[in-house]
Amino acid sequence: MPEWVHIIIRTLISFCAMFVFARLIGKRQLSQITFFEYIVGIAIGDMASIIPDELDSPLYHGLLPMAVYTILPIALSWVALKSKSARDFLEGHARVLIRDGKILEDNLKKERMSTDELLEHLRSKNVFKVADVEFALMESNGTVNVLLKSEQQPLTPKRMGWQVPPEVEPQAVIMDGEIMDEALATIGFNRAWLKAELDKQGVAVENVFLAQVDATGQLYIDVYEDKLKIPEPQTMPLTNIALKKAQADLESFALATNDARAKRMYTEAAKRIQQVIDQVGPYLTR
Amino acid sequence: MTIAQQVKTTLASLKSAQANLESFALATQNKQAKQVYTQAAQTTQSVVDQLQQRVGQLEKEEPTYKGF
Fold first, then answer.
1. What is the layout of strands, in order, in the sheet containing A171-175?
2. 3-state helix, strand and coil shares in percent for chain B, rounded to the nearest 5
3. Range in A80-94, A105-119, B35-49 the model is least confident about
4. What is the pLDDT of residues A72-84, one digit of tens each?
5. How far apart (Å, rounded) are the C-alpha atoms in residues A141 and B26?
6. B13 and chain A: CB distance < 8 Å anywhere?
7. What DSSP character marks residue A205?
8. Which pLDDT band, with edges at 50, 70 and 90, does A32 fall under?
9. What's the half-sphere exposure (Cβ side, CA atoms, 13 Å) at A180?
10. Which of A236, A265, A280 is opposite residue B40, by nearest beta carbon?
11. Looking at residue A224, what DSSP letter applies?
């Protein structure tokens, strides 16, 4: 056997072996949680390169250490999975860098991190003022994660005390002019409904590039012709406006009438419609 | 427009809003949204009923505008 054939065969073997071992170790290696896992990956690659490199030594000189290097991390991650103390020893634990807005200099020293590096890490999390940080820690893979002070955290509907409808994933019901029956069935509609909705907006199925239905049954359409203006679905906002107008009318009736009973009735009705608006408004105006 | 006519207009638009709410309740697959719509439709319906009564009274007071 000429030497070049030998090299090719050995390279193929090492390539296949590396593929199999990489699959065995799994996704965890990809995320490289710790520095150790990172070097294990490099070591396996290095051993694979021995196989085609040293033609005189038998194949198992390369394959065996690779196998050991694959099995060991799997075994260790099993141990780490089962016991917390083993986990702390094997994977290390996060170190707190800032607590209650105060930088912990001792912990910085233990991680051998300078003030500049700390600031850099914070900036990479879009934090430019240390004063904004409530809590920061360095994970075992070296990234710094930051918890902002509550007044610096982004505004969410919950913080504002707003009631918002739950978000449900929309379904694409028309793609490239073809109706997706499965998606339609998933969201609980059928072709007849879709036809009716399209007729309402005056569009033929063939002209639709993409149509999406959200959980409330609103249909959003994009057509091939980009200059064509399609009116957005209006029933929900219009209903909201109708309710608001009725509420205002009821209040003005209450002011206008001299009949005490009617006044009370109007006032109470206005209040109830206001309740309805508060309740259903977020659903109608999204 | 007399008050009776104005009340009738409001009644009509409330009825349409109520019907819309019911159709939204039917159209949505989301349980929470369905419940909110249904409840809103019920409350609106009760207001519609009250207004209907009031319109009856107004028509008795001003028979000229009956049927508008």
1. A178-179, A171-175, A208-213, A219-223
2. 85, 0, 15
3. A80-94
4. 888 888 888 898 8
5. 51
6. yes
7. G
8. low
9. 18
10. A280
11. S
* Number of neighbouring beta carbons within 10 Å of residue A19: 11
**Min Cα–Cα distance to chain B from A198, Å:** 16
**C-alpha dihedral, A20 to A21 to A24 to A25, nearest 10°:** -150
Mean pLDDT by 10 residues, chain B (68 residues): 80 88 81 85 88 82 65
Q: Any CB–CB contact under 8 A between A244 and chain B? A: no
User: In residues, how long is chain B?
Assistant: 68
In sequence order, what DSSP letters do the residues of A18-77 get, joined into one string?
HHHHHHHH-HHHHH--SHHHHHHHHHHHHHHHHHHH-SSS-THHHHHHHHHHHHHHHHHH
Taking the Cβ of residue A26 and every Cβ of chain B, the question of whether any pair is shorter than 8 Å is answered with no
Tokens matching residue B23: 């159709």
The chain-wide mean pLDDT, for chain A, equals: 84
**More confident position, A149 or A142:** A149
* C-alpha to C-alpha distance for B68 and B65, rounded to whole angstroms: 6
